[in-house]
Amino acid sequence: MSKKVVIDCDVGVDDALALILAFHSPELEVKAVTGVNGNVPLQQVFENIQKVLSLIQPQDKPLIAKGADRPLKGKTIYAHSVHGRDGLGGANIERNDGERFWQIYSGLADQLIQEMARQYPDELTLIATGPLTNLALALQRDPEGMRKLNEVILMGGAVRTKGNITHLAEFNLYSDPIAAKLVFESGLPITVVPLDVTHQVSLTSPLIEEQVKPIQNRFSRFLIEAIGYDFTTHRFREKERIYLHDPLAVGVAIQPDLVRKERTSLDVIVQEGECYGQIREVEEGPKIEVCFGVEASRFLDLFFARLK
Ligand code: BDR
Ligand code: CA
């Protein structure tokens, strides 16, 4: 039986790859894709969701919705340096006009998430691959309804390792630490997929040459364009590798035994200063599953197989 999922994302190159993995996996049934301000501004995220769905062309149209255009508190920050001006590394994807491959929901993302939690009680998996603003708003809107979620898998945080936006904090949590704190305190059945594991799964030059290049379909071509890999020089244009942060969160939904987890309680530093957005393990508070180990090559095999 497949898992019904909602993906809340801030597309983003690796969010796009996560969507491709999810829609190509028979273990999952993607009911909705919601957008949150994050890697790029919300309007661009929403445009990118439609572009990526135009590439995927799902037969069962998911609902799509726009969510928060800013964090609960504090400034918006973007990750253009990682994902490019348009969030998709400048990859050329034609957006289908009309709603052939999706259906636009009339309300906001947090309302859709909450409605779906109630529509599929104890059945729905929420995968969050961006800042946690929409999820926090859904919790504020309907805490009872949100308790009907079967699981929440979220990419974010640097628990026992260093951060990627500051030396202590990871981008998704740093973008909206108050939202993350509310989510961690909610008591929902959460699995966190932090940098501790996502930094173990990356696409390097040999993997692109040996595993991605031979695939030769529109998904592999999109990946190569979006990550800026150059086959004439056999190098990335601007980086050394790309991390598959968000695809790993989807991988955990597909094959939970890919990762080794520990149960712990987490807090997030919300006070301005050096530690802003840092995640901390604490004694008190609801227990959360945190991934600390991953079978990286098994995950990569899954990722490449589903790219085909
Ligand atoms: C996370 O931040 C974003 O840039 C990526 O899409 C991923 O969700 C990694 O820190
Ligand atoms: Ca993301």
Which fold does the CATH topology refer to?
Inosine-uridine Nucleoside N-ribohydrolase, Chain A
Q: How many alpha or pi helices?
A: 13
Q: Architecture, according to CATH? A: Alpha-Beta Complex
Could you say which overall geometry the principal axes of the C-alpha atoms support? globular
State the end-to-end CA separation: 22 Å
- Assembly context of the chains: single chain
Helix content: 25-40%
What are the secondary-structure elements, in order, as H or E? EHEHEHEHEHHEHHEHEHHEEEHEEEH
Whole-number total of structural domains: 1
How much strand content do the residues show?
Answer: 15-25%
Strand order of the largest sheet: 4-3-2-1-5-6-7-14-12-13
Major β-sheet profile? 10 strands, mixed
Low-confidence stretches: none
**Which ligands occur here?**
beta-D-ribofuranose, calcium ion
